[in-house]
Amino acid sequence: MRQYVIASILLAVLAGCSSGEKTARFLIDPPTTGERLPNRLGTTELKDVSLPDYASAGEVSWQSADGAVRSNTKQLWADNPQRAFTQTLARAISDLSGATVIGEPWPLAEPPRRTLEVRVEKALAQSDGTYRLAGRYFVGDSRSGGANQARNFDIHVPMGEGGAASPATVARAQSLAIAQLARQIAVLGGPGNSLRTSSAPPSNIDDIFSQPLPPLEGS
């Protein structure tokens, strides 16, 4: 009888631990505004977005009043954060501007004209009641005379009434921050520099060997 009671307790504990309803998962889903911007990127491959460790983990994180970054194992992102951030940003830029921005690896037969790299230095619901998304982005154009961009972004989104950092408000604020970043990249905005590619890229080795050989001397 005693063994039966112990087994029943263990089963109840395991059932409680495995209950999916106890784990909440949150989506990154920027709102669509219907705004249309000029296409300044054409075809662009977006490299996997670089995120801080706390932002690339599966748990939704926030900063508490003591400055510590905290999280809860029962409050998770619905998708891998790096993948979700990359794919969502690419789609948002494309929807805004009509550009063809696709996360790596590039799936089309025609190669992209440009590459886009985003390095996030901070992506955090701060203790001051704002969500901050800060870092740098780089647009590379290897064609001779192409415009290369190296620019900063520092986006602040209010967390809402009272500034409380619940997982739902963090997800909502991050979605809004990604939408603002997409707009900034679409117009190539933000402090930084624009540099011209001074020369054409070196020939691909396959292109070299695909050319006809010069005639032999005396032939």
Architecture blueprint of SSEs:
Layout: H1 2-17, E1 24-26, E2 43-46, H2 53-56, E3 59-63, E4 69-77, H3 81-97, E5 100-103, E6 114-125, E7 130-140, E8 147-158, H4 167-186, E9 192-196, H5 205-210
Parallel strand pairs: 1-4, 2-5, 2-6
Antiparallel strand pairs: 3-4, 6-7, 7-8, 8-9
What would the keywords be for this entry?
about 220 residues, alpha/beta, Rossmann fold, 6-stranded mixed β-sheet, 3-stranded mixed β-sheet, 5 helices, about 30% strand, elongated, ABC_trans_aux, ABC-type transport auxiliary lipoprotein component domain-containing protein
Give a written overview of the molecule:
With 219 residues, the chain is α/β, with parallel strands linked by helices. Helices cover 29% and strands 30% of the residues. It has one domain (2-200): 3-Layer(aba) Sandwich (Rossmann fold). The protein has helices at residues 2-17, 53-56, 81-97, 167-186, 205-210, and strands spanning 24-26, 43-46, 59-63, 69-77, 100-103, 114-125, 130-140, 147-158, 192-196. A hairpin with a 4-residue loop joins strand 6 and strand 7 (130-140). The chain is elongated, with a radius of gyration of 24 Å. The model has no long low-confidence stretch (mean pLDDT 85).
